[in-house]
Amino acid sequence: MLTGISKEELLKDPHFKVLSFLITSARGCVDEPKLYGPLRLIDAAARLIDVMEAEGKINDDLRKLRDLIREKMYLVMYDEEGFIKFLDEASRELAKIIK
Question: pTM here?
Fold first, then answer.
């Protein structure tokens, strides 16, 4: 039994949704192809940016990063080299935001 928050509220909470995605993705990675792990992590990054946006904690640079992720994350399905290059690009974009 939960205390403090109802089960219904918890299931609707965006933080809990990201948590659930991460845990189920971790399990999925055991049996999935090697590059699905990075795919799930980059997908989680986009989902986290969505949560941040809903909380008013986002700027144009983060929107641009999320758009890049959504545009290129499925390269993993047909262009593994392109997917790895995209991960490098996303890392560079994050570094620019940090600087």
Answer: 0.89
Cβ distance 47 to 61 under 8 Å? no
Nearest to 63 by CA among 97, 39, 95: 97
What is the distance in angstroms between the CA of the first residue and the CA of the last residue of the chain?
A: 45
Residue 58: φ, ψ to 5°? -140, 155
**SS3 sequence, the chain?**
CCCCCCHHHHHHCHHHHHHHHHHHHHHHHHHCCCCHHHHHHHHHHHHHHHHHHHCCCCCHHHHHHHHHHHHHHHHHHCCHHHHHHHHHHHHHHHHHHHC
Chain segment 64-89, per-residue pLDDT in tens: 999 999 999 999 999 999 999 999 99
How far is Cα of residue 70 from the mean position of the Cα atoms in its chain?
Answer: 9
